[in-house]
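tool_call: predict_structure(chain=1)
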Amino acid sequence: MPAMTVDWNSLSTRPGRLFDPAPRLPLVASAHGRYHSPMRFDYSDSNVELGLLYPSHLETVRTRHDEALDKAGAAHAVVFSGAPHPVFLDDTHYPFRCNAHFSAWAPLTRLPLSFVVHTPGEKPVLIYHQPKDYWHVVPGDPEGYWTAYFDIRIVHTLEDAVAELPEARNKCVLIGEVGEIGEIGETGDPAHAFGIERVNPATVLNSLHYARGVKTEYELACMRLASRRAAGGHLAAAAAFRNGAPEFEIHRAYCGAADHTDNELPYDNIVALNEHAAVLHYTNLDRKSPVPMRSFLIDAGAQVHAYAADITRSYSNGDPEYDALLGRVETLQRTIVGRVAAGVDFRDLHFDTHRLLAALLIDAGLARGSADSLLESGVTSVFLPHGLGHLLGIQVHDVGGHMADDNGATIETPAGHPYLRLTRVLVEDMVLTIEPGIYFIDMLLETLRGTPAEKQVDWKAVDRLRPFGGIRIEDNVRVLADGSENLTRDAFADLAG
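tool_result:
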């Protein structure tokens, strides 16, 4: 799209605002009756629709940093993109992961040793590290819809980058990871080398992290694109499973369809056949297909400009009992998604899930007694040991899930549910995962032996289903005032035509 220009001299005199809101794109109905802006399958930073939404997003990011700086009594926010981490005693590095605070400013995920400098009322500065290097591919010249909104200063060394930082370092806060990154200055400590004493102050991070729970229209658009990208990978993975492929080949099919290398995935794919589905974070990827092939669980995501999708689906190879259980979990998951709305306490949704799971276990013949007794004895937590979901955004497990306010107060996880990652009351334009499941985990099932709960479990039924591992179904859901937008199911519907 044509470059967008901003008259910064005139804008800087306007109180509290540097950008006019982006024009809203026309709304279209989703497969679930909700409305959102249409978006082409363009994952680049030349996407015209993203370019229209980006200025308003940048204004929101700027305003949030203004507020954080005001609370901290600071004049400049220096956001460091991060540095490659060397492998111990080797001449290679671990895959680079950009600081999420940096990528929130612009769609830049592969730009180490760079900075965004924000000073309220001024055009943000992007110190763009472009080393002179014939061993590796270096970042190309900046281009895309975002470039007109920065004072871009291309530098070739980290020392030159540091020289571009504000002179009044005592008035700066540094946001980012500042471990050892080489000999810079006398100490080699980048915090001192940058000359900034206040590194990741809690006042600033609390303010930014709490606000980040609410997504801008630009962020939502990126996440819809990420959902479509991931949905394409899931369809390819399901087809590979139907063709009898082993886990490694299913993973390759997913990456090919999603157009991601392993290092570009937002998290390591979980590709689990049969009993491997009982390992919540299974990532081993067997090279041979099991015989027989009973079940398939895939938890795999994608990203667009660092904004993530996080989707899980489970599949059966035709066993009637497992098919019936899969259908019950699908119904449970859709029921909980249907209860998502602004004003709902996520802890209540989590407990609702366990109540529904208790009824499911009884209905499926896996447990006996009343639903209340299964909850009280902890049986449901053995079959579902993880939380219902988490915030999603520029990080898969996005920050702020336990925050009560922007001052750092927290909302603790309920007793007996330590792995619940979200305890907040939902507000409009949060995006979160809804991912209930049921698993046959030997280690957890054995904890019921010798307790009163042992008699509540039908062990013969459990033993029949152990070889299938488990089931998880996960959607990415945007909170609306009166319900939700299901990014995941809309993405699958879009691909289905």
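agent: Confidence is low (pLDDT under 50) at residues 1-27, 31-35, 182-188. Proceeding to next step.
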